[in-house]
Amino acid sequence: MVLNAGRELERMYDLPPDLLRLRTLRTWHAMWVVRINEAIAAAEQREREKRQGEERRPPTPDWIMEFGIGVGQRPIEVHVGGCSAARKRQRPITREQAVAALDEGIRACIHCRPDTELGVL
After folding, report:
1. Which domain does 91 fall in, by range?
2. Sign of CA pseudo-dihedral 27, 29, 30, 34
């Protein structure tokens, strides 16, 4: 029994003994709980928005045709979908269109190698 009383005293020493400081600590900790709850709510909102963005994003096309600048915008290069070397002037194409473009002499991207992926060398 004496041992348990000693532990109780040890636990009590980490808090101030007077009522004013105890209430001050409770207020301070309550303030932090509110801030932590707000931070949790903000993090959950960011996660929801990220998940919604991923769900709404269209799927990456299998093949991409990159086009040049100017009138007519001629096709200049074929890429595998998601190739980081493909520039902004691009359009998704089918496998058949990619093969036909390569057969017509349109350049294959040297980074993603669509000709290798398509088996057209």
Report:
1. 63-118
2. positive
pLDDT surpasses 50 at 1 = no
Of 29, 56, 83, the domain-final residue: 56
Question: Is 11 a residue whose pLDDT tops 80?
Answer: no
Does residue 49 share a domain with residue 8?
Answer: yes
Residues 44 and 75 in one domain: no
pLDDT value, residue 12: 58
- Please name the residues in contact with 79: beta carbons below 8 A apart, sequence gap of 6 or more: 63, 64, 65, 66, 85, 86, 90, 109, 112, 114
Q: In whole angstroms, give the CA distance from residue 109 to residue 70.
A: 21
